[in-house]
Amino acid sequence: MNTITLTDTTMRDGSHSVRHQFTETEAALLARAMDEAGIDIIEIGHGDGLTGSSCNYGFSAFSDAQLVRAAARVVRRARIAVLLLPGIGTAEDLREIQDAGASVVRVATHVTEADISAQHIAEARKMGLFVVGFLMMAHRAPAERVLEEAKKMEGYGANVVYVTDSAGALLPDGVRERVSLMRENLSVPVGFHSHDNLGLAIGNSLAAIESGASYIDGSLGGLGAGAGNTPTETLVAVLNRAGIPVMADLFKAIDASTKVLGPILQRHGAGIAPLEDPLLLGYTGVYSSFMLHSKRGRPFWRRLPRYHPGTWPPGGCGRAGGLDLRDR
């Protein structure tokens, strides 16, 4: 199986959760943490895409270019992406954002309206940008129609085409049907973007991967519109457990969420449900009712190395590194 390319949308889709008020400093802190965690693509900007800052969609504290520039200065490996909705963002906006440091643009349309993306995709390709076709509200069209629109985006020059579950309304079978049909009939990779409105973001992302998708979206802590997106750190844990290759490092992704994003959200009067403790119980296979005990013992546990399943020292909860865990 190909290595999954992971796009994190914390600073774009997650921007809705903070009323588009991320600052340049916060963009740099988050971008550095995600880059160190091995995230492949970091999407940044107003929640409604380039130049979305308006009375219609809500004003940003900083422009898309300012946020992109702040992030681009600190990343070493990750690519910076922006979202563009035809009718809101323009080719001129693309040139400005490319100068600021973005190298990926995701051109988004309703699932039945790929036609309006032709000029934007073609222009972006001429500029040398990596272009993602983003078919939103994918539940609103049958698989055959989704494929028809995806072929248009491919024909316009998109490097990847996404099934985008903007409403979090798809069930796993619907994801499989759409992704597999696209994978069988397109010559470009297929991606999947999920929302957790039915509690299926992780399950649907797995269904997409099993059906051939190689580009998958997440956001730290699941921060995003509606019930949020696929939590990046949970997704990485699941992919590790499933033996599906991904560049991202689980523990660094957890740190990016808890140590960097968490305090930023507090400053904005927002928050996300803490994922670290239950996530690590599931990841390591620890009995769920032990979670409160593990929280009480956190000062002790954090003195120990972090382990992946199957790498814990012999003896399980016996001696590890000279410390007798049975007496704690």
| Helix-residue proportion | 25-40%
The tally of helices reads 12
The largest sheet, given as strand count, sense and whether it forms a barrel, is: 8 strands, parallel, barrel
- How much beta, percentage-wise? 5-15%
Overall structural domain count: 2
How much is the average pLDDT?
91
Secondary-structure element series: EHEHEHEHEHEHEHEHHHHHEE
Structural class: alpha/beta
Any idea what the radius of gyration is? 20 Å
Number of distinct beta strands: 10
State the low-pLDDT regions, or none.
312-328
User: What overall geometry do the principal axes of the alpha carbons give?
Assistant: globular
Distance between the termini: 42 Å
User: Order of strands side by side in the largest beta sheet?
Assistant: 1-2-3-4-5-6-7-8
Provide the CATH architecture of the largest domain.
Answer: Alpha-Beta Barrel
CATH homologous superfamily annotation of the largest domain: Aldolase class I
Q: What is the CATH topology of the largest domain?
A: TIM Barrel
Under CATH at level 1, the class of the largest domain stands as Alpha Beta
